[in-house]
Amino acid sequence: SNGIKAMTVEPVKVKSKNLDVLAEYKKSKQKKAANFVVIGHVDAGKSTLMGRLLADLNAIDQRTMDKYRREAEKVGKGSFAFAWVLDQGSEERARGVTIDIATNKFETDKTRFTIVDAPGHRDFIPNMIAGASQADFAVLVIDAGTGNFESGLKGQTKEHALLVRSMGVQKVVVAVNKMDMVSWSKDRFDEIEQQISSFLTTAGFQSKNLSFVPCSGYHGDNITTRSKDKNATWYTGPLLIETLETSEPFLHALNKPLRLTIGDVFRGGVQNPLSISGRIDSGSLQVGDSILIMPSGESALIKSLETDGEPSDWAVAGQNAVLHLANIDPAHLRSGDIVCNPQSPIQNIQSFTTKVLAFDHLMPMQVDVHRGRLHISGRISRLVGTLDKSTGAIAKKRPKIVPPGTVARVVVEMDHPVPLEAPARIVLRAAGSTVAAGLLE
Ligand code: GDP
């Protein structure tokens, strides 16, 4: 021998602990994670209510709160001590509001909540679409004030409810707000509950997925503590926060096959030369697992992982995870790719049929298909029919054009195959604006 050995790269081996991850998860004190989107008419009290949740659950410290209160008093709008804005929109500026509470997260003993949009903007439909595409449920804020509820129902409430429904959001927590303005009238609450129920079921929601809580965001009544108003004693149901805690459909996703959408790919770490991060959409994984990356179809080994910045042996749906990988060429990993289990992989598809809510006129046309971070160019190739909003039955077959505000079934073809499966929330865009949003079925 000349003493020179052929260099072969030995595959990394990691022994799996073969954990029952679901059992580990139940044993652990892991908090559940839930994302929600806030909808409702302008001035219904969405900002005030969310600010109240953030303040009551200590997402905002007292000093910051006091600062906001002082600033709000200066501009003469007291309740804005509780109003929050993720980014200051023109509406807030017009009102002279200068506060900026840069958080959208709060937590209880059981659950970590993320509010996935910024309410309060007059033009927040684009934000809401992005928000709704990640939402586990929606919070609909209704103004119980006399006359206001009726006018709100005609306006944005309707539009928003339809939008979140068309994106596949199934649960709605209805905060019947400003109950202080109607002296906590039970009759008023019952009337609103009845009308909103029938409106939402017509929009396609199932009544078992709706809950109603009478509250006052301004006074903090029935949000995280029970109202002390003597007229409010008739309500003995759950507080708003308790309803939020039971509204996330999170456990269902645990038993489904593994799906993780890659957010970022990190290279060059000393200990971990190749890592990916992302939220686990469904299923679970553990150290030692072999995973499949789509669309490339390449496999990789999970060497180690982290959840919430801490090393862990496993991770489950709803958690954000960082996976340190081995035995794969980084060229096969891109943001937007899907990590799955080799036994139940996601398929690459090139065309799909979907039910969408049209925001613009739809016809056979070029569109960009967006699903989370994945986007790909394609076209609407066929208009199958317009649909009845409540029953989903075909209202008109093969229309030439679908007008805005209509729900329709369309066939979309993409320029090349991508990993996509039902149920996926998708957004269709053309010339820089959203033309439709819906659920791949
Ligand atoms: P948004 O447009 O839905 O975000 O509504 P805001 O949170 O900005 O509230 C609109 C107005 O309603 C503000 O003047 C608030 O002070 C007021 N408001 C909000 N919640 C309540 C409430 O529970 N009771 C009363 N009386 N007023 C409220």
TrEMBL record:
GO terms for cellular component: cytosol; Dom34-Hbs1 complex. It catalyses: GTP + H2O = GDP + phosphate + H(+). Component of the Dom34-Hbs1 complex, also named Pelota-HBS1L complex, composed of dom34 and hbs1. It is found in: Cytoplasm. Transmembrane segments: none annotated. Residues 31-252 form the Tr-type G domain. This is Elongation factor 1 alpha-like protein. Belongs to the TRAFAC class translation factor GTPase superfamily. Classic translation factor GTPase family. EF-Tu/EF-1A subfamily. Keywords: Cytoplasm, GTP-binding, Hydrolase, Mitochondrion, Nucleotide-binding, Protein biosynthesis, Translation regulation. One of its GO terms (biological process) is regulation of translation. GO terms for molecular function: GTP binding; GTPase activity. It comes from Talaromyces atroroseus. The keyword Hydrolase applies.
